Amino acid sequence: MKATGIVRRIDDLGRVVIPKEIRRTMRIREGDPLEIFTDRDGEVIFKKYSPIGELSGFATQYAETLYRTCNYPILICDRDTVVAFAGLPKKECTDKKISGEMESICENRSLYVREKNGKDVPALEGNDRLTVSCAMPVISEGDIIGVVMSVLPEGQDAYPSDVETKLIQTAAVFLGKQME
Prior knowledge:
This protein is α+β, with helices and mostly antiparallel strands. Helices cover about 30% and strands about 25% of the residues. A hairpin with a 2-residue loop joins β7 and β8. The longest helix is centred in the C-terminal third of the chain and has 17 residues, at about 160-180.
């Protein structure tokens, strides 16, 4: 575990403030769920909780099915990282963070569709080779818990069809319903 040199006291209600620098680095936002557990050494550990991560096996099957039937590379992510993928190399997707642009698109709570003459949106942080073709936030009980997206590998210049956009929307709504 990495020491930060920051010490905080617990207040009379049992609360502790997580410093802003740590929240920014770990992408912890107001309202984000945190899992709290202890280890054998008596350490208390806070870990970001990913509701969609609970469905990772199911999400992987869903991504593979979408890829096989439609031949669109698919990413299913929680609010921070890739949870499931299909049609893309493992090294490009495993435990990768979504891009800041993709986070902003999710905050809009609506379908994103790549447009002609529009700016390409990178799907993953630090990887401009994969751009978003179509993306839809996964919303459960009013909260954004992730995103389903089809992506274009480097060198492809295509625009999503109506079928692709409907499939991505359906996948996002379906996964959101699974979490309720």
